[in-house]
Amino acid sequence: MREETGALSGSGGPGTGSEGPPKRGRRGRRRTDGEEPTPPRDPEEAARALCLRLLTGTPRTRGQLAEAMRRRDIPEDVAEHVLARFEDVGLIDDSAFANAWVESRHHSRGLARRALARELRTRGVDGELVDEAVGQLDAAQEEATARELVERKLRATRGLEREKRIRRLAGLLARKGYSEGLALSVVRAALEEEGEDAEALEQYLPE
């Protein structure tokens, strides 16, 4: 019995082992060594850490970062100070963000100026910067992209009634932000090139 008691109470036992009790965080929360430390209490330090984490690998707008800090209850004056500092050192650049967004989304998704402007505004980009960014696309480039979109989809609509084809193709362009007039004009031209009767398509001319 004496040997068994010694084994339980010795240095390797569960109650008085060399590892000691589980560690606690700053606020008394039990944690293991593998867990993240308690977030910093200083608001400015917390704001900087949040912004750096959100900016890692993904550009963000000033508006997106400001909204993230509001959700974390960062004081407004602290948030403004941190955002201004990040702009000064080039970590936030809404103009560069907007320009890159327009180029990428237009070429990869075929989005028109109207859709691109809407996306940028929802991300908190200033209206003047939005106008400058979407101004990269002129009317000719937008029409050329619309034609490419219709040509890629045209084969899949063969066999459908004319009106249904037009509605489906024009709807594709409308969802990407193209105006109704441009969409109908592009679709009509594509169907004419395919051999559709031009006179029969007259009723689908944009007004």
TrEMBL record:
It is found in: Cytoplasm. Residues 31-47 have a biased composition (Basic and acidic residues). Pfam families: RecX_HTH1, RecX_HTH2, RecX_HTH3. Residues 1-47 are annotated as: Disordered. Residues 9-18 have a biased composition (Gly residues). GO terms for cellular component: cytoplasm. Residues 93-133 form the RecX second three-helical domain. Residues 142-182 form the RecX third three-helical domain. Its main location: cytoplasm. Residues 47-85 form the RecX first three-helical domain. Keywords: Cytoplasm. The keyword Hydrolase does not apply. The keyword Signal does not apply. One of its GO terms (biological process) is regulation of DNA repair. Belongs to the RecX family. HAMAP family: RecX. Modulates RecA activity. This is Regulatory protein RecX. It comes from Wenjunlia tyrosinilytica. The lineage of its organism: Bacteria, Bacillati, Actinomycetota, Actinomycetes, Kitasatosporales. The gene is recX.
